[in-house]
Every structure is written in C-alpha cells, then in structure tokens.
Protein: Lipase
Amino acid sequence: MASGFVFKILLVMFCFCGSAVGTRTKLLGSKKGLSAASDDGICKLVVDPRGYVCQEHTVTTQDGYILSMQNIPHGRSGGNTRSRPPVLLQHGLLMDAITWLLSPPDQSLALLLADNGFDVWLSSTRGTKYSRGHTSLSINDAAYWDWSWDELVAYDLPAIFQYVSSKTRQKLHYVGHSLGTLTALASFSKGQLVSKLRSAALLSPIAYVGQMTSPLATNAADNFLAEDLKWLGIHEFNPRGNAVLDLLKDICAKPGVDCTKLLTSFTGQNCCLNSSAVSFFLEHEPQSSSTKNMIHVAQMIRKGTIQMYDYGNADDNNRHYGQPTPPAYDMSSIPNDLPLFFAYGGADALSDVKDVKLLNDSLKDHDGDKLVFQYREDYAHADYVMAVNAKQAVYNPLITFFRLQ
Structure:
C-alpha cells in the first residue's frame, strides 16, 4: 500500500480532528450511569452487518464503572452454542473492542474464533467510547478519571471474568493485545482469575518496557507529557483532544521522531497492513484513557519495572500501599502450570524483543509443555490485530493452542 499516504492521513486525523472528536465524546458520556445501548453499540455497528449474531451486554465493576461487552455466540453457520468454549478478547491502550474487528471476517480474530467453534466475548475498558458509564460519576468529574491500569487489574478484569464465567458456566480462554497482556499478567501474578481460566494468548506482550524503542512513546515518557497534562488539570487523555495535540507537536519536533509516519514512530514498521484496515481504524480509534494511566505507563518506560502506580513521594505511597515505594508485580509468581501462548515481533517498537526476553526469563520455571513463544521477525505492534496474513501467521496457531488445552 501507499504507506506514506496512509501515515499522513493518520497525522491529519490526530492534528485536526481534536475538537470534533472531543465534542462527540462529551455527548456520548456526559450523563451519570450512561452505558452503551444495543441500538448504537458495536454489535449493530460492526458485527451484525457481517452476518454474525451479536448481543450487547454491560457489566458493572465493584468501583462503579459500567463496561460494554459483546457476545458473538457462534459463527455465521450457526450451530449448537452449549458446548462452545468461551474466549474473552481484551484490547490494548488507547483502543477498544473494535480492535478485534478491524479486518474482514476471514481476517478478524473475533470472527475467526466464532467460525472455529468458540463462544466469543469482547470487552472495552473504562473511559473508551462504549464504556463511559458510571453508577455515580460523570466523565466531567476528575474522580471518574482517577485510575491507572492497576484498577483494570483490580476491578475491570475480575468483573468481566466473573460475568462471562457466570453466563457460560465454563472456564475461559483469554486473548490480550498490548496493555491487555499487561493487565492479565499482573492479575495472574497475584493469583487472580486463574481459577476461571483455561489458557491465555498474549499478542505483543507488554510487561517489561524499559528497552522500548518507539521514538514517540519514549520521548513522551522522557519529557513527562502525561505529567504535564495532569499539571494542567487535564484528567482525560484524549489522543485527538487539543491539549494532547499541542504537546504531541512538541514531541514531533524532537530529533528521531518523524511524525509524517506517526504510526511507525509509535508501533514500529508494520509489515502487513492494508489501507482499508487502517482507514477503518481511523474511523474508530484511538480512544481515550486516563492521564493517570498514561503516567503509569510512562513510569514503567522510565524505570524498566513492573510496579503499581508511583504517587511520587514516600508519604503518598505509604498512604496508599503501606510502604514508601510501589509494590511490584512479580511475573515469576504466575502459576507454572498455566498454559500461555506468547506472540511477539522483531519490528515491534513497543513490545521490544529484549523486554520479551526478560519476561521469558522470569518464567524460566514454567512447565515447558505449558509455555509457547512464537516469534515473527517482520511483525510490529499493529500487525497482531490488523495484518492481512495474521490468520495464517498467528491466529491459526493460537486456535490450535486453545484446542489443545
């Protein structure tokens, strides 16, 4: 494809659509308790037109966030739904559940799983377009955005797992991409969710990120972009909002960051995207997160550790954790008999191969027949959810792995 043209479109979308998108999100989430409705949700928008049965669900977390979920109970050919093993798909940072539906049906993982005998469940994290509801808070309240991925570990994933487990009365397979791998690994390391889990497939795994090579991400972290937003009183990190764009322009002016190729500057050189998938991506992504969450990720990049959110001083950390430094998530504490499938790429600038090796080293005592690492030299971060050849390269082996568990 004409990659330079696509990347220029991406830059234009980031730089000139902030006010329009900001207005849209305010209209969607300005009321307390608002959640995705079945007549304007992901099912009707993306799944139904492709000929699949799809049902909208919501789940409320213990701390009051109302999350959007979709269930695709079977493939286009129908069939008995009772014996189908459930699979939960969790997207990455600044994305939502449409991550898994960006490509045509024969290339989108969610629909491939449905066509291959699985009961598919999609979820969108708090703060994204379809998960902006809360039992008592508005998105205009600073308290609504007072969370990082620690809360996704503590509240979102447990609520989602419990909901799917209670609906299906089965243990789940799990698929995560990017931040969806980090939250899962952190949960598993604390012994959470494992009793409801059959196996997990982790695409572009994010755990250690201290050797990340993404110029855009590392420059943003090193220059405290998210901390600047917090200082300005901006609690929602809206990638298309004016405040983020102003700071992004400063980052783009720095050496080594070529913002005419913004996607590459962020993800690495993806090998196998086509223009239609990227255009569909631009219609729906990126999504909002909390500024606090972006600070947390930046802390990980700067420190090279996997710790809970650092409040910046011993007193505040003591108040939250009972100790002067944030507790660490210990990857070596993940149960050794948990079946894990990792897929990572040599061109991925976010999930760098050296960081993945650190993760692999931390799992050195894992049962050998329960651990698979799949490496694609030419894949970067977005390839794992949008590549034209992902079905053959990644998804077919992933499905085979699930069927063996």
Q: What stands out?
A: DSSP finds 16 helices and eleven strands in the chain. Residues 1-37 have pLDDT under 50 and may be disordered. The first strand starts at residue 55 and ends at 60. Residues 177 and 203 are 5 Å apart (CA to CA).
